[in-house]
Batch of 2 targets.
Target 1
Amino acid sequence: MDIGGTLVKLVYFEPVDITAEEEQEEVENLKSIRRYLTSNVAYGKTGVRDVHLELRNLTMCGRTGNLHFIRFPTQAMPRFIQMGHDKNFSSLHTTLCATGGGAYKFENDFRMMANLELLKLDELDCLIRGLLYVDRVGFNGHPECYYFQNPSDTQSCMKKPCNLDNPFPMLLVNIGSGVSILAVYSKNNYKRVTGTSLGGGTFLGLCCLLTGCETFEEALEMASKGDSTNVDKLVKDIYGGDYERFGLQGSAVASSFGHMMSKEKRDSISKEDLARAMLVTITNNIGSIARMCAVNEKIERVVFVGNFLRINTVSTKLLAYAMDFWSKGQLRALFLEHEGYFGAVGALMELLKAAEDP
Amino acid sequence: MAECVRLDRSASSHTMDKSITLPPDEIFRNLENAKRFAIDIGGSLTKLAYYSTVQHKVAKVRSFDHSTKEASSDKLYEISMQEEVSARLHFIKFENAYIETCLDFIKDHLVNTETKVIKATGGGAHKFKELIQRKLGLKVDKEDEMTCLIKGCNFVLRNIPHEAFVYAKHADSEFRFQTTHPDIFPYLLINIGSGVSIVKVESEDKFERIGGSSIGGGTFWGLGALLTKTKRFDELLQLASRGQHASVDMLVKDIYGGSYGSLGLTGDLIASSFGKSATADKEFSKEDMAKSLLHMISNDIGQLACLYAKLHNLSRVYFGGFFIRGHPVTMHTITYSINFFTKGEVQALFLRHEGYLGAIGAFLKGAEEDNPNQYSWGENYAGSSGLMSVSPDMNPMQRARSGTFDMLEMDRLERQLVNLPLLQDPSSYIPDTVDLTEDALAREYWLYCFEEALDGVVKRAVASQPDMPEAAERAEKFSQKYRHKLQTLRHQPFAYGSLTVRSLLDTREHCLNEFNFPDPYSKIKQKENDVALRYYQKAIKSLEELSWEERQFALAQGVLAGNVFDWGAKARPWLVDSYDQWLERLKGPPHKCALFFVDNSGVDIILGVIPFVRELLSRGTEVILASNSAPALNDVTNGELQILTERIAAMDPVIQAGLREDRLTLVQSGSSSPCLDLSRLDKVLAMVVRERQTDLVIIEGMGRAIHTNYYAMLSCESLKMAVIKNSWLADRLGGKLFSVVFKYEVPAGKSSQCSPPLTRS
């Protein structure tokens, strides 16, 4: 599992080649957990299994099975740990591999409340390992990776699958609550270039404050209906058209939320407009920083991951456009289907590795 | 401040009728002679620029024709007060609410102008275009905002020595002024208006917008207004300065429980701005949200600035725009962000006159035919309001700030000023020995000293103009103005850049000139010169009777004793004593050319400096005598020195030959200060110094060799001579009153050819 600032990501490998013998031997506890996880798509009020992401017929550690992807809010961690206690996880003799900041933050709670020892793993190591693995095995016969063709043209812009055959070097932009930007040169050689605190948490946090919404899905739904130009001040709002002296298009955003300086404008906009403006602001800013890093690090391939991009085509298309337009076609934005789960996958692989090495 | 007059706002309400009275003497000074106008109208402030001429009195000296014996008095020369016209740039900043009143005022007082256009820039220019045209009858000519900004920025960086500063919230002095690099290019200007523009400036005319961001001041204002229902930008900043961002932001420790050690991310680092407001079902205070927003935007801008600085390999990064403009909160957060992202490699620099850049640039655009960049300009301390801290704890007068008029005046200098070519490292040269901005004890002492001395200065000023009955009244006005400046500096020592003894002296000179006391010492200097001249021949004769070695010592003593009558013979070793090395050097080959910065009139110049110079000439060394271009205290001016050397030449064949053969040259320093800034000297002086291959610089007197240049490093030999006539300063330097400084220095690497070898093989 990968315990982030906002979400906990959990991957579960369900072997499907269990023999009758094995089933007999299997502890009742483990059986019940498997049944609980694989027969439901929702857990409690907030836990969700992303069925569409399930990787089927995977071979791991010599076993064939399905990989399930589950997420729930980090806020629910105390309840999760309580469940671990109630279901007596500690009797299973299995190691729980955890990464993300929460592996450190909740380590003591796991130990005290559920009598569980966590195997803590570095989140960036896990992220890269998981990403490379999922890209290699593919998405049930399809490529994991995709990009947008004609990103600068809204009419002909199209999602296209591709392969990350030779992924290095790549700039890896992980957009969770905050953003980390890594330059990855090989499987084991990478560095964190920079990060920004303006990430998914900022989008959701400010949306909640501005619109009263409560969930990421709600915020995105509103954003999809809004018009950010009612909120943002564009170049043409200041100069009447393009700012030719500096080659700025009239449609470019000059000041995010700039119209909101005026009371009349504040009184005339909708919540949807605000949500859209928030999404555009955060996305463009990440795009801008990522692009500068790519130029500074001399890397042309920019891979965006993280749960901010989940069900968020507004942002993915905007990022694809920003990379292409501002670099005059030099940079290409790439995306991955399993957006936010690579850290958790990487942690699982560590567990398997531990199992393989006696 | 006297010049920052609070307008009666209750009377103005929204009608802006003429019942708002503007004190004309104080604000729109010299308006009657205004020639050109420019205006920069921003979102809330208007900056008006005009070029005007100032008529003021100057003291001139003229030699009597001694051959005809017409001089019935024994006086050496005649002193006359003449009217002179000089050029001055005026900049006034006021709230947009006053714009109509101000335009009416200008209309009523403008008499001599021939101008038909007013250059305009800034976002508000189009809004007021019609009003300006109607009120002033001038055609509004709009100029590109960014071009004006860059032009203005170049101008202040070039002409105001302490323009740029580093902001340090928790340091002893909030503002740390930087010495301007002689080559101001290339630099990065980050202008934070409603959005952010990042401009790379490579030369006067070459600049490029290399990037920008839509997250800027407008985002802070707009989002801030939505989140807190607070309408005004200033109020939002006030809220932010009281807030705690950690209740709204998700910190690294909120995710990790502590720091993320392997990446070196501390627990207090913001992982996700506003990250807590999505998950917590609670109300957040306005203050906390404003603070979080301020951090988010400042950090973001700082990060982009660093990425661009790195990409273009630039280390000088200036910040401006309304988001920054004098606000300690934003200067602090931006500084913090830059430090964080560059690990201290790049410093965030701010500008003292940032608010005026657009107006200055617009003005320069309109004045291109007058070639304003061909001249050097100097900030007039008497007419400028100076920088004011808006931080409430630094400045109790802060509340009065809105509604005040802020002013900047720049004098066009007669001479173009450049670096002394002999400075070892012009970019690190700091003229002043003690920075009173950082040294609170020293500041207190000197402010007290100058205040104590004020009555004496007033008396002398009045006495210098016995024929003018209103002199006493003017002197009183001078006294009030200077006293007020001292009081301001007590609270805001950073008002005019680093506070130094030099700036205190210069401010006094500016104030004296302001009230037409161009040379309070003129009569005293005349008398002293006259007396000293009578002893000249006798002094030379007694010097010539000495042995060579005795004479060298007497000559050094003569220069030192020159500015203290009761000095007597001070036993060696002196407080700083490298006389032996100097003597050894004199036994070697003569210098090619010596540059001598002279000090006082009377005994000092005539019986101290001239005999010393005479000896150098006799050795075969050429001499450049550099004296002030305009009066300061009892320092000898170039005009006076011309007459004095002519008179001496008439009695002394060595001096006469020196002048005739052009081996003794008199040049103006370009300065009118009792101190000396080697980075702002007359261009002609620099040329002569270079042409003559000057290899020795002599600096004499407290003002030039102790208060300034004590630590100055030169690329050739130098000799600094002074007697410390101030017990506090003597104490500071570890000596007693009347301690002697005789500092002879040879730059590293040049000693072998200059001093004789110690051992012979």
Target 2
Amino acid sequence: MKMRLWLWCISFVFLCCCGIQNGFAYKIPPVEMELKGEGFIVSIPHEAGIENVAFNVNRNRPFKAFEQGEFSGRVSTETNNRWIVEIKRRLREDDTIYIWTDVQFNKNRFRSMSSPIMVSEVPSGVIAINEIVHDKKPVVITTETPPAIDPRNDICEPTLTIIRNRNACRGELIFEENFNGNELNATRWRYEVRMPLDIADAEFVLYDTNAEVTNGMLKIEPRIWGNDNPDADIRRGNLNLGVRCTAYQNSDIECRRQAFGRVVLPPILTARINTKHAFSFKYGRVEVRAKLPQGDWLFPLLLLEPLANLYGQQAYASGQMRIAFIRSNLNLQTSGGIEMGGRVLYGGAVLRPEASYRNTFMVNTTRDAHFGETFHIYSLTWDDQRLSFEVDGQKYGSIDGGFAQHEMGHNYAWTNGNHMAPLDQEFFITLGVAAGGHGDFSDDCLSKPWANTSPKAALNFWRDRGNWKSTWTNPSLMVDYVRVYAI
Amino acid sequence: MRNSILLLVFSLIFCVIHTFAGKTECPRIKLKRQWGGKPAKALTYQVRPIRYVIIHHTVSGECSDFLRCASILQNTQTYHMNDLDYNDIGFNFLIGNDGIVYEGTGWGVRGAHTYGYNMNGTGIAFIGNYSEKLPSRSALTAAKKLLACGVKEGELDRNYILLAGSQVSSTQSPGLILYNEIQDWDHWSLVP
């Protein structure tokens, strides 16, 4: 009797193991594409357990769902250890190919949407994730496959979230960056090399250094110009970022500057990175674990920025969202005695350039310690009604949409959008550190060395460095991870 | 001598068997794009091989030429996608009285024909109403060929179970006369 029970147990465990082995242990590898003759082939490698494979392929049209592609093919036999579908259609160099793959692995089906494949380089190198070398031989392009839908729960609940190029299910982790390795993952992040664009709200920095990636952590450290370039003279120098400049709106302002009189070169050198070429989304939940900078007149950039600037480029007409924002000063008060320094955390939207309106669309929470003392988890949930903000899992406020009707936010173009306009478009992620500027520190802050409307603002900030330099003891932004979930 | 005759006889038998085995060739299938169908709004691939085949009728007009069949198919697809909000035409295959098999969602892609049997079943509909009459002989032959082809291609389970829609859901489909006919088919089962 006891023996029988044992046998049952053993076979049960055995079955369980097998079940897991067979059913759940498969992840669709990156799809490879190869140009061949008058057409192209798509394939994935064979693996024991694969029964059949289907590919759906679109040219220049992202999939909105796991829908039928312009080309659709299914194979039930492997060839040379690969599952291959050949499509007889000549591609153009400027085509972008979208693929989703569906695999029967034993008795389960798995599917995943691939990242888009550029058939050729995009001119000016904006969105070229995969590059093809035009050779006589067919070239194999590898794409990065987003996480497959969890097969154990293959009911994909509809989501509000929209992602460039692919579909998601509610709750799905659609972006994850843990900063592993020794350098920034260039398929996800690009460095910005430019000066600030908006004249009415220009921070006093040059974005042109690299971040450090070590021990699973991103570190962005702002430096005083002279520290890196002892010869650079911000009062007489001439800066031309040349072809390295990543400006995409106004290269006259963003890429070149001749110091003269009150016009100085940016006194602070720092880094700013974004996912513009690789990842953008509309509606979702962003979570960032970070240690914010400490030091007078510094502030972290944990932003969502608009992909297309549909409502205009100037003066935040297309909006900006701040997942978290502090004025990193160790002590900062307004003349009215209101605490403004690093103990006050803000989250919200920036819809106007003026410093006097900077807090209009923001919520805040105050702590006893500076937010730069330790790591915190900052999150923004962005849906079609409002922005909601949390720190360490605690909600501290939300901002309702309707900005087109708001007296401080009115912009005629927004009335063409929905309730959240201008925050009803796709946004990408930006991380960085900035300093000074005309829009983030209001003029009634005590001991502020510059006036926001003064043409000498940056110069006066620089001249005051004897006072603020010593406070930059921990000026770096440290980011442990960034995650985005579909909602 | 005797041996070689035996060998000859065996090879003959082998040839005959081989030819007959090869007879399970697939019927002509008009693809969805050929009859003017729209792409599916979403595709759900099925786990192969498929265990059930469910027979239906469309309760529409009949057709015995391509143009008429295509027109019925297009209307059916529009009705299924727009009014019923299906992802595609509901059946995996449809068969006209012209003896042509028309592709619906096709092999291995889930249709919307029989509640509870969409994920593991293939739905085949005869175009027309078969409560009081049979589909054409060529239509019935095409259906049988399609089923044999499905087994040969590994799309259908070797021991697949053939059912009428009326056996597993509250419908008259595929009509009583056609239901009587398929009861004589090899894989029909009284019990679902």
